[in-house]
Structures are given as C-alpha cells and as structure tokens.
Design brief:
The complex is a heterodimer. Chain A is mainly α. Chain A is built from 16 helices and no strands. Chain B is mostly helical. Chain B has one domain: MetI-like fold (Orthogonal Bundle), CATH 1.10.3720.10. Classes of the chains: A mainly alpha, B mainly alpha.
C-alpha cells in the first residue's frame, strides 16, 4: 500500500501542509454531533433557557450535571443492569462458539457445510422478525422482564455470528498440528483445550470486544423483553431518563455520555482486536 | 386478516420506507471509501485520526439518534442556524412527513459510513503495491487508477460493506424509535417498527398481524440472503 500513499510523500511540502491542516478540520466537522453532546453535558441549565444552545458554556457545570446523573436518577441502576446483561452474554456466546467453531472447523462430517451455512444465514436475518415468538417464549418461561431472559436470548442469537468467526479462524490454523497430536494419541478434548484454545486467544479477544459493544448498545431487545429499571439496560434507561428530564438537555447529554462511555473505552483499549474482528473477511 | 396487510396504507408505507432505507443507506459505501482514501496517507498521528473517525460506530444508536434529533430542532437546532446563514428558511425536518424519513436516514448514515470506512482502510492495506506501481508506469492516474486498479482489489471489502449495510438498513429500528417514534402521522415507520407497534405497543397486542409483517420483512431480506450465501458458497468451493 505504501505506493498508493506515495503521491503525498513525493508531493511538495505545500500539499503536505495543506493536508495536515485539513485533517483536524475535517475531523471536527465529522465529530460535531459528539462534540455537541460533550459541550451540552457541561453547560448550566440557564444556557438553554437563554437560548444559548450552540455557543460556549457560560459556566463549567461538569460536577453538577454528572453528579445529578449519578446520585439523583436511576442511571447507576441501569448501568449495573447493562453490565449484568453484557458480561454473561460475552462469556456465554464466546464459550459456546469456541466449541461450535472447533467442531465445524476441524471435523469433516456430513452436513458440516449445511450447519455452517445455517449459522451464517441466521446472522443475516433482521432480528426484529423474531420479536413475536421470542417474546412469547420469554413470557411462557416466566423470564419476561428479567436479566436472565435477555442474557439467554442474546447468547442464543450472538452465537451465530461468533461461530462464523471462530470457524473461519480455526480453519486458518495449521491443520498438521492437530494431525500430529492425533498421531500421538491425545484425546480430542485435550487437543481442543491444550492446542487449539491457546491459539484462539486473539479471536477470543476480538469477539469479546465486539460482542460487548453490540450487546451494550442493544436497544430493541431491551424494549421488547424488559420494562422498568428492575431489568432494563442503559440504552432503554436513557429514554425513560429523557422522559424524566424532558428538555433538560444538559442532563440528557450527561446521561447519554455516561451510557456511551463503556463501549468507547473498550474500543480504545482493545482497538487492534476490535478492528480485526470487524474487518474479518475484508481482506482475502 | 392477512389480506388486510397488503391492503392497508400503513403497511405499504412502511414497506416503501424500507426500500428508501435500503437504497439511501448504500450511500455509506462510497462515503466510506472516500473517507478511507482521504485518510490513507502516512502523516504523523494518522492512526489516532483513523480511530477518531471510526468513533460514531462505537456509540450506541440511541445516543446518535438523540443528538441528531437535537440538531433538527425547529427553533433551536443547529441545522436551522446554519441554513439561516445561507439565507434559507427554517425547516422542521422531523415534523414534516415528507422529510422525516430522510432526516432519520441521514442520522443512520453517519455511523454506517464510519463502518464502511474501517472496512476499506483494512482493504487498502492489502492492496498489492507492485500492481499499483506497474499501473503508474503505464500512466494510470487519479480516477482511472482508482477504478481499474484499486477498486478491483478492494472487492472483498466492498462485498462485506454491502452485506453489513443491507443488514443495517433492514434492522433500522433504534433511530426511528428514538427520533420520531414512527411519526409524524406514522410517516417514518418501517416494517420492523410497524410490527413492534402493532404487536407490542399501546395500540394492542395483534401478534398474528405482527408475525405477518415479519414474514414480509423476511421475504425482502431473503432476496439478499440468497445472494450472500451463494457468493459465500462459491468462495468455500474455491477454497477446497
């Protein structure tokens, strides 16, 4: 790729400088909506009543606004719910897909490709069409409006994507390694546990970050399968938060930032894995 | 009951809104490619720029929808403030049945473009430098270079971008629920939202009707699923 970049390297210093000046400007325009929420969240209430929506904050109210979000609303509860939903889902989906991926990637059996394609096809379904039966089933099992119900459904649905990911990853591992282990007479489950699993660490990391973000940001199932602060995660919570603080833009923004922060932090900490996971298949 | 589904104006409107989403959402692909090409340079700190450009995708759609609805506010919104600078009258995008859907799609395009951008950036990393150099020696430049040399090598990235964008368009629900809640006058409903409204909201629990809408949505998706699976199957066959 170096070569396609070359034009700029070879070009005059003037062009280079122009590019370097343009870059931050374009970035600011691109991120304007997020910058706006960040600025909103430190504004005092008076700014909005005075019509100073898009100007600079007249005073710095970071602690007042965020303090209100954390101590004066249901927000901490929603955040805790989100954590209690997201983390078990990540563990469950990744653990299951390690095994399904191993089975589909290593063993040759009749219908292997068929099962694999069923996993793939499940990914493409607009998940909203599952709404009526899933809700019915959740109510029938007595899991409606519980975190357990939400976790179970998320695991079931996310395992499809995870399996696709894991199977392709395992397929790319050197197969002779496994054959050699078999010749040595090592039991299959030991091959899985001691040989394949350690090699899958990067895939496990990538999937964990991705699933964390997907589930944290899920809104649809939160609305369909839960109601009220007892079990609802933060994405659903923020809408009721907004009903509580109607037109209190500074508090709504602070709430939105708090809700958006965990996946953002996750992304920055594990950037390499995150992008590796998302762009799987973009390069052949 | 199902005969009604095809007959009611509501479901037809939702269906056509879905089609609008499908078509306009595809703009994320050229948009993402454009930004990826813009960022595909080697200057100091470019890595940080790339991840900051990707930011919108990481933030929840609920938050994005919320922020865009503030942008569109008829009196206080930034959009109208900007339009006023250019001497154009104020518009109430989310309150106007003819414009509301487009306003929501614009909000949706923002994170989706970021997603396509990251796919293309990864794809650009794998472009074969020798081919580019050879093309350059042959005098290829600018658009011709992009179209005949770079783009064919980006085909896997384009395929994935197409798949995720189509899926994203058909899954659009969060934006609509947050920004307009289907209104004004139901003009921004898509099939998934309409289904939700019919079977779970205060309008009553018409589960069967909701399921019928689900089938229509699935049929729409099936067209694409067939194509996706077929091309993936071709790949698998090639690998053996």
């Amino acid at each position: 790729m170096r070569c396609f970049r070359n034009p700029l390297k070879k070009s005059t210093p003037g062009v280079r400088t122009a590019y370097q000046v343009a870059l931050p400007i374009v970035l600011i325009i691109w991120l304007l909506p997020l910058i706006a929420v960040a600025v909103f969240s430190i504004k005092p209430d008076a700014d909005f009543t005075n019509g100073n929506y898009w100007g600079l904050p007249s005073s710095f109210e970071f602690f007042t606004n965020y303090g209100k979000v954390f101590f004066d609303s249901d927000m901490p509860r929603y955040l805790l719910n989100s954590l209690l939903i997201t983390i078990p889902t990540v563990i469950g989906a990744v653990a299951l897909s390690c095994m399904t991926g191993f089975a589909l990637g290593i063993y040759r059996f009749k219908g292997n490709l068929l099962i694999f394609f069923m996993f793939i096809a499940g990914n493409f379904v607009p998940f909203q069409i599952l709404m009526v039966p899933v809700r019915d089933m959740t109510v029938g099992l007595g899991l409606y409006d519980t975190k357990t119900g939400l976790v179970l459904f998320h695991i079931a649905f996310q395992t499809g994507f995870c399996t696709l990911f894991m199977r392709n990853f395992i397929r790319a591992l050197p197969f002779p390694l496994i054959e050699a282990a078999r010749v040595e007479g090592i039991a299959e489950w030991r091959i899985f546990w001691y040989i394949v699993l350690p090699l899958m660490k990067p895939a496990i990391a990538a999937l964990s970050v991705l699933i964390f973000t997907f589930i944290w940001n899920d809104y649809f199932w939160a609305v369909v399968l839960t109601q009220g602060p007892e079990a609802q995660p933060v994405t659903a919570g923020i809408t009721s938060f907004n009903a509580q603080y109607r037109a209190a833009y500074h508090l709504m923004s602070a709430g939105a930032i708090v809700a958006a922060l965990p996946p953002v932090a996750m992304f920055f900490l594990m950037q390499k894995h995150f992008i590796a996971g998302l762009t799987l298949g973009a390069v052949k | 009951m199902n005969a009604c589904l095809a007959a009611t104006a509501n479901s037809r409107l939702s269906f056509w809104n879905n089609v609008k989403w499908l078509v306009l959402y595809l703009l994320a692909i050229p948009g993402g490619l454009f930004i990826a090409l813009f960022l595909n340079q080697t200057v100091r700190g470019i890595r940080l720029y790339k991840s900051l450009f990707f930011f919108p995708f990481v933030v929840s759609q609920v938050v994005v929808g919320l922020v865009f609805s503030w942008f569109y506010l008829p009196k206080e919104g930034l959009l109208n403030a900007v339009l006023a600078v250019f001497g154009m009258g104020p518009v109430n995008i989310l309150g106007d049945p003819t414009l509301a859907t487009y306003g929501i799609i614009a909000a949706g395009l923002w994170p989706q473009t970021a997603y396509c951008m990251i796919l293309y950036l990864t794809g650009l990393n794998a472009v074969d430098p020798e081919q580019v150099e050879a093309a350059r020696l042959d005098g290829a430049k600018g658009w011709r270079m992009l179209w005949f040399v770079i783009l064919p090598q980006l085909k896997p990235a384009t395929f994935i971008a197409f798949v995720v964008t189509i899926i994203g368009a058909l899954r659009s629900f969060d934006f609509i629920a947050v920004m307009t809640n289907g209104g004004p006058f139901g003009s921004t409903r898509v099939l998934s939202f309409y289904m939700f409204e019919e079977s779970l909201s205060e309008f009553g629990f018409r589960m069967g009707y909701g399921a019928a809408i689900a089938v229509v949505l699935f049929a729409l998706m099936l067209l694409f699923i067939g194509y996706f699976l077929w091309s993936m199957y071709q790949d698998e066959k090639g690998a053996h």
